[in-house]
Amino acid sequence: MDFAFILIQLLNGLQYGLLLFLVASGLTLIFGIMGIINLAHGSFYMVGAYLAWSLSSMTGSLTTAILLGIPLTVILGMGLERLLFRHLYQRDHLYQVLLTYGLILVFEELRSVIWGDDVHGVAVPALLGYSIPLTENLSYPVYRLAISGVCLLLAAGLYFLIQKTRLGMMIRAGASNREMVQSLGIDIKLIYTLVFALGIALAAFAGMINAPLSSVFPNMGSQVLIICFVVVVIGGIGSVKGAMAASLMIGLAETFGQVLVPEVAGMIVYVLMAIVLVWRPEGLFKRA
Amino acid sequence: MKKNIPGGFDRREFLKGSAAIAGATAVGTLAPFGLARAQGAKLRVGLMLPYTGTYTPLGVAITNGFKLAVEERGGKLGGREIEYFVVDDESNPAKAPENTNKLIQRDKVDVLIGTVHSGVAMGMAKIVRETGILWINPNAGADEVTGPLCAPNIFRTSFSNWQTTHALGKVLKAKGHKTAVFITWKYAAGEQMMQGFKEGFEKEGGKLVKELYTPFPQVEFQALLTEIANIKPDAVVAFFAGGGAAKFLKDYQAAGLKGKIPLYGSGFLTDGVLDAVGDAAEGVETTLHYADGLDVKKDRAFRLAYAKTYKLQPDVYAVQGYDAGQLLATGLDAVKGDISKKADMIKAMEAARIDSPRGQWTLSKAHNPVQDMYLRKVVGKENKVQGVAWKALADPARGCKA
């Protein structure tokens, strides 16, 4: 194994890690900060991917599809919060699990009715549709690098929103004591609606931007759901920084695991999680 | 936080409920008692297939194919009308015993048809072996079904995993490839296809330099593609299916490997995904027991009839379902619909030469098709037939003692 090979695998690992952060970012917000267990996170990811496919085949452009898709999913998120989730904030986590599990089934069925059960591909935007040669027979798709850039921007934006803005302060305050924030005259209901919608939109956005890489197929959400929870748990519940660190760790561990110890590659992430939890039961970064 | 128990459930309601259940059970056990199932009665066929989840299209295609075979015989097999009992197995191995029993015990089916998912099929095999009911498996390729688990009452009209890649060894040799890398998901089907290829390739003097696995059903291939580029084999052989196959084909192209290291695979790599992958699959060669553009008279008739009936183009799964119907018809014709003469029926089925859209095939001793494996090449949106990669390929049926 030569040096260039290790460098390329390092790039693969980091790039995969950033992709994981993108997919898990919505969950970090909803589960990590609002404390709602949203098993349907994967379903919103799937909805995003299918929206990207159907809108881009209608309009002929993935960019247009994403620009149209984001407001749609924000509206979907706000509607669901108003209709369903709002009533469960005060309840036990079990109710949230039941509701969101139900939503998985509903979304799968709706997907089957509206879009069918076939596998679909989404074209990479022409501007990014080429590859950079790395070695004599390996090249790197520019679209992957572009997604990595988007992930970094998104991470910075989320961090800034939650740690540095007034809205972020209210969100954090609301997460630790809802009643107190409300009695200070802040419209906590509105804030929760917004944050929830943002979380849903992030999940769907991940699905949309990832659609050209992953293809669009039934049950695609269930594949990302577990790994998203692992990211949030390893990173420390409620920490954007932690989610980023955890994503990169998992990305590198999976990549090198597959290359160096292929027999147990499937377990590595979970072993990693177990080790982190023994070492730091609250995850890498405790909530600030 | 308050924990509510939704809806009270007092003792009186509980007693009422139990009484109702007891009553229902009594009726349920008594009713079939008086009904002797005469020869003139309808033949009860149980379809246990996936009608929800990822494999829904496969379940539907198999059902369509089977029913088409019955309709072509005037809705009767061996002179008896057919009554269908349908169970959605959800491709869930954990529910396989329960679902199989539903059809055998509750619906008292005479014949069991199913299924797609190999894990579910393994669950079915156990019960089928215990009860001795006639079972025709129209897809699930687990080698074990016609290997260690084989039995006189177990038939398969599709393929064994081993079969789908074994002929590739010859193909690669003919193209002058001496080294190859096999890449697949780490689960039973992937490993069996790897084994089938390895045996075929090594027999021809080729060398399988590396087996690459990614955990099922993960679809992040970048690390392994980098490794392929590093190893630089003469050829890459792959098995993935559905969404995973689409992603692999696109990633292979995006990594710049397409055109540098030729890609081959089990036919499932390029079946049902060609619309999704654009030109990423163009030129990929695979082996399978069915292809587009076969010069088989039966195939042209079948495709026409299928398209007319269902307003859909048939695929390999529809063919397998259709042949399940044909195989059952052969058995029932031999005993004039009297399924109680099971031994005679099995004998007739074993001797059958099925005139299939894929070309004629017979059954091996372990009841798996002995069939031609076609070499296919992706041209546009079709898996165009290039020729026969292996004439009458038989699964070795290792571990079958029946």
Number of strands of chain B: 15
Main beta sheet of chain A: 2 strands, antiparallel
The total of helices of chain B stands at: 13
Low-confidence stretches of chain B: 1-38
Shape of chain A: globular
Radius of gyration of chain A: 19 Å
Order of helices and strands of chain A: HHHHEEHHHHHHH
* Multimeric state: heterodimer
Provide the β-strand percentage band of chain A: under 5%
Whole-number average pLDDT of chain A? 89
Number of helices of chain A: 11
N-end to C-end Cα span of chain B: 62 Å
Largest sheet of chain B: 9 strands, mixed
Helix content of chain B: 40-55%
Report the radius of gyration of chain B as a whole number of Å: 23 Å
How many beta strands in the DSSP annotation of chain A? 2
Helix content of chain A: over 70%
Assigned CATH superfamily of the largest domain in chain B? Response regulator
Structural class of chain B: alpha/beta
Of all protein chain pairs, which has the greatest interface, and how many residues does each chain bring to it? A-B, 45 and 44 residues
Distance between the termini of chain A: 42 Å
In short:
With 288 residues, chain A is mainly α. Helix content of chain A is 73%, strand content 2%.
